[in-house]
Amino acid sequence: SNWQLLGDIDEKTWLAGLLLGPVGTLLGFLPAWGARLKSKQVKTVAIEVGEVNIGVAYAMMLLVWPEGAKRDAVFTGIISYTIFNQVLVWVITIYWARDNIASSYAAWRSKHGGRIQITRLKSNVRSRSTGSGHAEMKRSATTSDPEGGRPC
Fold it and tell me: Is residue 50 classed exposed, middle or buried when 0-12, 13-18 and 19+ CB atoms within 10 A define those classes?
């Protein structure tokens, strides 16, 4: 199974997968920053170098390594890198976009008065499991008790 494959990857490979993206990003960022590129260009270079052309690595591995245990061992490193790479790109993007996110949020708050309005449906929605992993939704109309005004 996939979980077993992930569990078979040793700690050194996970560490290499974890550090490859940040080190590559830093190695792209520093020269671009040192060359006094514009901020967006520096960030673009950093992300592109941090990506380390993983598609090329996949293709090379398929061509160089014959099928078997050695090829599987090589691919475990690529698997660990791929997992951490996605996390890294999200973290970097959020960090670099934090000012834009904050200003967008401030503009939204000033427009809406800082309140979120939630509209409520007049029907009850219940969910029950069907045993197959899917929830079956049932909608029932709310009626009022004529004497107390409470839902039945």
Answer: buried
Hey, is 133 helix, strand or coil? coil
List helix spans (H) across the chain.
2-7, 11-34, 39-51, 54-64, 69-96, 98-112
Q: Note whether 139 and 123 are within 8 A (CB).
A: yes
pTM score of the predicted model: 0.48
At 55 the pLDDT is 67
Q: Based on the number of CB atoms within 10 Å of its own CB, is 25 exposed (0-12), middle (13-18) or buried (19 or more)?
A: buried
Half-sphere exposure of residue 151, counting CA atoms within 13 Å on the CB side?
Answer: 6
Cα-trace Rg, the chain: 26
- pLDDT beneath 50: ranges in the chain: 127, 129, 133-145, 149-150, 152
Q: Is 102 exposed, middle or buried (0-12, 13-18, 19+ CB in 10 A)?
A: exposed
Residue 76 amino acid letter? T
Instruction: Give all strands (DSSP E) within the chain, no chain letters.
Output: 123-129, 135-141
Q: Tokens for 7, please give them.
A: 């569990």
